[in-house]
Design goal:
Mean pLDDT: 85
Radius of gyration: 20 Å
Strand content: under 5%
Distance between the termini: 60 Å
Largest sheet: none
Number of domains: 1
């Protein structure tokens, strides 16, 4: 019995380690990709971001709608949970973290590439404030779901445990807490980010 618990614990730590490592790898690749953009890509990106910044400076940068914010905030989290309920999910969950790290770092690095150091605060406001909560939630739930999916795969191969025992109250409680915690990024995105970005846009 203790051996099974220790094995389960190792899988949880392995899922945490892989999620963190691939998230960091995604950050590195995203930063490098943004930095390696040629003049054509930079010009196109500059045009898109300049129009966005113009809205900020004109005072027409309004609060975003709720549905797009919910989709943006919860998509990675929900995807990881569904993968945790599947047999091959443990192999895909770390990749989701890599994708999240890539797009987060690419967005920030590309913004800074276009506007220089003056765009650091605006980039952090647009992409970083909500990530303070959403990224730890994603990594924590990734470790939980990696463990559950790996155990499910083992149970199917060996017939040792039923799905009911794998997905107990603790699993759903932890996933539910992560989902509930994402209400904070939603509130930040809708109320704090517009105010913060408007305030720091003077540095652009």
């Amino acid at each position: 019995m203790n051996k099974k618990k220790n094995t389960t614990g190792r899988e949880g730590y392995l899922g945490l380690l892989l999620s963190v490592v691939l998230f960091v790898c995604g950050i590195l690749v995203g930063t490098f990709t943004a930095g390696a953009m040629d003049e054509g890509g930079s010009s196109a990106l500059y045009g898109i971001i300049s129009d966005y910044v113009a809205l900020i400076r004109e005072g027409t940068f309004s609060r975003p709608e709720l549905l797009p914010v919910l989709l943006s905030t919860y998509k990675y989290q929900v995807l990881v949970i569904f993968m945790g309920l599947s047999i091959p999910g443990f192999a895909l969950i770390p990749i989701v973290n890599a994708v999240r790290g890539f797009f987060l770092s690419f967005s920030i690095a590309a913004f800074i590439k276009v506007f220089g150091t003056g765009g650091v605060l605006t980039a952090i406001g647009l992409f970083g404030l909500t990530a303070i909560v959403s990224v730890p939630c994603l990594i924590f739930s990734s470790a939980i779901c990696f463990q559950a999916s790996a155990n499910l795969c083992r149970s199917v191969l060996t017939g040792s445990r039923s799905a009911a025992k794998l997905y107990d109250r603790a699993f759903f409680l932890r996933c539910g807490l992560c989902l509930a915690a994402l209400v904070v990024p939603v509130i930040l995105e809708m109320y704090v980010v517009p105010w913060f970005v408007s305030a720091v846009s003077v540095f652009l």
